[in-house]
Amino acid sequence: xxxxxxxxxxxxxxxxxxxxxxxxxxxxxxxxxxxxxxxxxxxxxxxxxxxxxxxxxxxxxxxxxxxxxxxxxxxxxxxxxxxxxxxxxxxxxxxxxxxxxxxxxxxxxxxxxxxxxxxxxxxxxxxxxxxxxxxxxxxxxxxxxxxxxxxxxxxxxxxxxxxxxxxxxxxxxxxxxxxxxxxxxxxxxxxxxxxxxxxxxxxxxxxxxxxxxxxxxxxxxxxxxxxxxxxxxxxxxxxxxx
Amino acid sequence: xxxxxxxxxxxxxxxxxxxxxxxxxxxxxxxxxxxxxxxxxxxxxxxxxxxxxxxxxxxxxxxxxxxxxxxxxxxxxxxxxxxxxxxxxxxxxxxxxxxxxxxxxxxxxxxxxxxxxxxxxxxxxxxxxxxxxxxxxxxxxxxxxxxxxxxxxxxxxxxxxxxxxxxxxxxxxxxxxxxxxxxxxxxxxxxxxxxxxxxxxxxxxxxxxxxxxxxxxxxxxxxxxxxxxxxxxxxxxxxxxxxxxxxxxxxxxxxxxxxxxxxxxxxxxxxxxxxxxxxxxxxxxxxxxxxxxxxxxxxxxxxxxxxxxxxxxxxxxxxxxxxxxxxxxxxxxxxxxxxxxxxxxxxxxxxxxxxxxxxxxxxxxxxxxxxxxxxxxxxxxxxxxxxxxxxxxx
Lengths: 242, 394
Known about the structure:
The complex is a heterodimer. Chain A is an alpha/beta fold. Chain A has a domain at 83-150. Helices cover 38% and strands 24% of the residues of chain A. Chain A contains nine helices and ten strands. The mean pLDDT of chain A is 92. Chain B folds into two domains: 3-47 and 179-391, no CATH class; 56-171, abc type-2 transporter like fold, CATH 3.40.1710. The longest helix of chain B is centred in the N-terminal third of the chain and has 35 residues, at 21-55. Chain B: It is found in: Membrane. Chain B: It comes from Marinicella pacifica. Chain B: This is Na+ ABC transporter permease.
């Protein structure tokens, strides 16, 4: 369960995120939907306690992320925008490294690693060095290392960016599985079909501000639109002339 | 600090970089072997060239040989090959066709027979190096010998003791020991040792910071429930370990190449026993911390791997400064100098090589001075990543 209350962030003169609040309950997939540059990544970085918000607070299972970032991070599994792997290590070594940093026991790491190999379909490449991995293989390894400690809260920044259909479907299936296990999943995206396909709750961000939130149906009713894309365009103030 | 996390980071960095052939090649081969091998080659070629010149028959082009027939006979008797010179003596020296040219003045014969100083001209290049000097010195001493022998004969003919002209007798007492002669040629040794150490840690300092940032793995790494200080401390420990490894290998390489140095030919002795090596290692080891910390700090500010390589590469000039200084100026050692990192190491190693006993106070001061500075820099390096600006390249 993640609850974000009135966080803001500016870089110099530019206000990237302005007074953002949102709720991501357990057992649901919540989307942070917005165009490129709308403030998704900055918001996510504040939520997973990489950077400090100017005012407001983030609670992860009731833990304030800036009072106790170490404890909060132990309850989160994050796939950030940056998802570089260590290319001179094998996929398994990459995952085990993060398991150890999570403070897990060796036996537990091994067991959990096998489970993730299975669930994400990584059997073919788990013991290969990650140099030359395809985009899909890389994302799977990045997700596995982020979730090695089986966290209650899963945060993903544009998880299917640049992936082909098969990989995208594998990841969607995996997220739905996690939802059925009662996990809290928050993910940011700019892809309507994606959000439409997997998310229960949608929060729309534009220009660093939250403009609407609710289920897909609620958003469509509110704007009288036929699909999420039209609802989104109408909510962010129409098609801007570029 | 979370010790288990620190160890995890340390071993991962060591493993990852040990798999990188480029790191291993640059730290071990370049850092450890480059210095010793270069020194063996340079010293041997220099000595060989000088020896060849000294043993070779001296060949001297002479202008106006007819003007001083007696002198020519003397030189020939001393095994000098006299040659005719084509072109001007200035040209011959400038073009390095000859090391030295002798010219006999036109009125040499007349002055000689009248008992006036008769003039000869020596053409040579005073700024020439090594072997050329040998030829000039040999000819000059032959001319001096001729001068003395004729002078003595003239005095004896007039019934005067030649000893009257020897007013002062100089007896030389050279205090250079066999070790100190070796040390003069080996003033570059501390530089190569320190340089090796800097080169050994360089790639890790860059790879674990700027490299990790560029490959976009730093952000996910910092999302683990471990303090950034701890992660950085683990990285720095790996960097320092590679520096230390290179240092040990450089010392071993020097020890192993020692038989190839032409010490005997130079009448020198060079002391590098186990005890000397241990003291060298002891005073140099804290420098690995300092080197790793400086390199990590600099690499942290770079936006890319390449940029970091440029900046960190420039740091290699720093250990050159005290070594160069000591090479060209004889500095009287003061105890406080021992506390200055790099300078202190240079002084101690130079003393060790001269065969002097180095006091434990000096050794302690070198270690303490470098360690304090190294720890301060390490603290800065570790704290640097608490600044949000350091986390992203964009």
